[in-house]
Amino acid sequence: MASHTPPSPAADSDDISPVTRTAQRARAAAAEIAPLPRAVKDEVLLAVADALEARSAEIVEANAVDVAKAREAGTSETVIDRLTLDPERIRAIASDVRDVAALPDPVGEVVRGSTLPNGIDLRQIRVPLGVVGIIYEARPNVTVDAAALCLKSGNAVLLRGSSSAYASNTALVGVLRDAVEGAGLPADAVQLVPGQSRDSVRELMRARGLVDVLIPRGGASLIRTVVEESTVPVIETGTGNCHVYVDAQADLDMAVDILINSKAQRPSVCNSAETLLVHQDIAAAFLPRALDALADAGVTVHADERVRAHAGASKATVVAATEEDWETEYLSYDIAAAVVDSLDAAVAHIRRWTSGHTEAIVTTSQAAARRFTQLVDSTTVAVNASTRFTDGGQFGFGAEIGISTQKLHARGPMGLPELTSTKYIVTGDGHIR
Amino acid sequence: MASHTPPSPAADSDDISPVTRTAQRARAAAAEIAPLPRAVKDEVLLAVADALEARSAEIVEANAVDVAKAREAGTSETVIDRLTLDPERIRAIASDVRDVAALPDPVGEVVRGSTLPNGIDLRQIRVPLGVVGIIYEARPNVTVDAAALCLKSGNAVLLRGSSSAYASNTALVGVLRDAVEGAGLPADAVQLVPGQSRDSVRELMRARGLVDVLIPRGGASLIRTVVEESTVPVIETGTGNCHVYVDAQADLDMAVDILINSKAQRPSVCNSAETLLVHQDIAAAFLPRALDALADAGVTVHADERVRAHAGASKATVVAATEEDWETEYLSYDIAAAVVDSLDAAVAHIRRWTSGHTEAIVTTSQAAARRFTQLVDSTTVAVNASTRFTDGGQFGFGAEIGISTQKLHARGPMGLPELTSTKYIVTGDGHIR
């Protein structure tokens, strides 16, 4: 039996909630946009980009309402800065949409194909997922980025931003929908989830059969809630407790550069390093230099006893690490640090504490590089490179809907192909078994 | 922060449940077997096959306990037949294990690879998922099949069979574990989930962070329960409300052959057809023949009014269809049948009622074949071929852990690659951003 037959759009009636109704409309729109060829989708995206620029003033005006509210609520200037839109930022967002239009269309790609022994032609091709739900916080540019990536991959999108950006998101989605409709496509391919309460998120998480995947983007507590409560399949994103391990044999200059870049180039993002592990054989040579470099970068070191033993002459701010430090994603100018007995001890520490995002090894030993990449089980293992490279843009994917830290469906930076599923086409001449 | 850090094996203590403890041991074993090269894994599988044959008598004896209990409980002979093991069946199971050993190892396959503009080498490689949980019913051969596929793909497996096969599964897992241990690998790579109550299933479903994926295999209600309640990611399998659509232009002989093969070659499996849709222009020519052929095959037809209009002279058993018939997976000698106005009406019917498994079109029209394959959104779309081909063995995958009817991670028959995740290896020479 069809255990997950969704309520049909025809069953639309008063006892259906606004969220369910929205999801039903998305499902109907998804069926219309899934078969569209690339040219049509690109045209829509270019129309969206033009419309964003043309209606810049309207968007800025709506954004000002959110900004004023945030300011009244005593929100920090950092967060207000992320929330704020001006004509220049809107031009940048429009430019990102044009970049998405320029990316290849993942839909229709033949992933696997062969002629079976009985003469049947078998093709596995990429198809859109259907309806993609994104639950996200603060930054209104995510609204446009996510919609553009979903449209390009033939998916309808349900956007559930934070209430602090509600006016901005409403204006942006209005512009998007008008552009989609202007190109002759169903506006319901892009929708804001109605309601600002937790209940609307909860309903979205229970809309199995209507929504094909939920992607939560934001803080750890948001992601945990969605993972725990959703019956819709979830792609977990973004928590990054990343490690830099300096092996017994390592180029010390390189190790310092990679450590500082991994930690301090942009500490607020998920691919920045949070823990430094140092092989005991190189600790005396490396740690004094590393601690000074961290001090220069303004980083506080949460160090175990063995690291602290090398901190004497250093100008670094060093505090004693507690067990909690090993699992903390600081997202700030802080780093945990420990000396380990061996590469295997480093691997064991990482396996115990990592969120599975990115771990780097700095080593001149081919054997060590090989063992570390084999044993570490995270989305990305970097050898003699900064953890900061785990990024859709850096990987050449052109754009990214998030970084999956789970093992199912997608792992690591997710580009357009990760927004697709596949189906098999079996072609015969009357073949039977 | 690491929101899903699993309890460490070191934290093992009396207040941890037997299921959690089992999962922790599986996790530790998974880390040991993940990096094993193919030769070692194949050697284990061949040892397993030999041991199954050598200890055949012991397995048959344990199985007799289950069979006697089933007979006392008044279980049907069909189910008892599925449950029963004899030396010949055990030889067949051992032979399947040798076939799995002969398959290529998915682990280590480079899925994507390039040198980035900055000189970094990027490789996306297949890695084991980690710990795979399988929840299944009746047939004890699944115990061995699933364990063999998981071992070959470098995963540890947690097996939760039905209580009706508990003695058989205990004996089989005993043989498997001894063979694994005899090859110098951790026996805990293969474990039966302790306990026969619903609670042990519930605990397994909440073991997020310890278990990487749950694959329920069995009836619709089991699958629905797992999908609804699990916080561990789930791959939904197997419900098949499959359709055969006969287009306005079709070879009538071919259409009859495909219909009868799809429905009656083996009605109890998920890729058998459950609904026939016929274009109105061909109904008068096709239906009388089709109904007679269905009658010859012993199939009862649950027909709409327009089909019944053609049933007058037929020897078929025809009953009036209710709406429930459109969503029923009979798994028996029954089929629902309707006349549709057009190909698009057939697609609409399918989209409304299908479980998304397999749909076939019989047509001589290239345009119709193209439109049907584009618009139908199921794991497999067959053109002029039986629905019965949706199968890992038929697709040339060599073995199958199930047929996914969801869109995330795997869709359609799942072979060894579907039991893997990927990780990215980033290799530089001191690259920083």
From TrEMBL, chains A, B:
Region listing for Disordered, in residue ranges: 1-20
Domain Aldehyde dehydrogenase: start-end pairs: 19-308
Q: Which GO terms describe its molecular function?
A: glutamate-5-semialdehyde dehydrogenase activity
Matches recorded under SUPFAM superfamilies: ALDH-like
**Amino-acid biosynthesis among the record's keywords?**
yes
Keywords per UniProt: Amino-acid biosynthesis, Cytoplasm, NADP, Oxidoreductase, Proline biosynthesis
The subcellular localization recorded is: Cytoplasm
Concerning InterPro entries, the annotation shows:
Ald_DH/histidinol_DH, Ald_DH_C, Ald_DH_N, Aldehyde_DH_dom, G-glutamylP_reductase_CS, Glu-5-SA_DH, GPR_dom
Its pathway, per UniProt, is: Amino-acid biosynthesis; L-proline biosynthesis; L-glutamate 5-semialdehyde from L-glutamate: step 2/2
Question: Could you say which enzyme class this protein belongs to?
Answer: oxidoreductase
Keyword set includes tRNA processing: no
What Enzyme Commission number(s) apply to this enzyme?
A: 1.2.1.41
Q: Which reaction does it catalyse?
A: L-glutamate 5-semialdehyde + phosphate + NADP(+) = L-glutamyl 5-phosphate + NADPH + H(+)
User: Its family?
Assistant: Belongs to the gamma-glutamyl phosphate reductase family.
**Functional note:** Catalyzes the NADPH-dependent reduction of L-glutamate 5-phosphate into L-glutamate 5-semialdehyde and phosphate. The product spontaneously undergoes cyclization to form 1-pyrroline-5-carboxylate.
Q: Which PANTHER family match?
A: DELTA-1-PYRROLINE-5-CARBOXYLATE SYNTHASE, GLUTAMATE SEMIALDEHYDE DEHYDROGENASE
Supply the HAMAP family for this chain: ProA
**Name this protein carries in UniProt:** Gamma-glutamyl phosphate reductase
The species this protein belongs to is Streptomyces mauvecolor
Task: Give me the gene this protein comes from.
Answer: proA
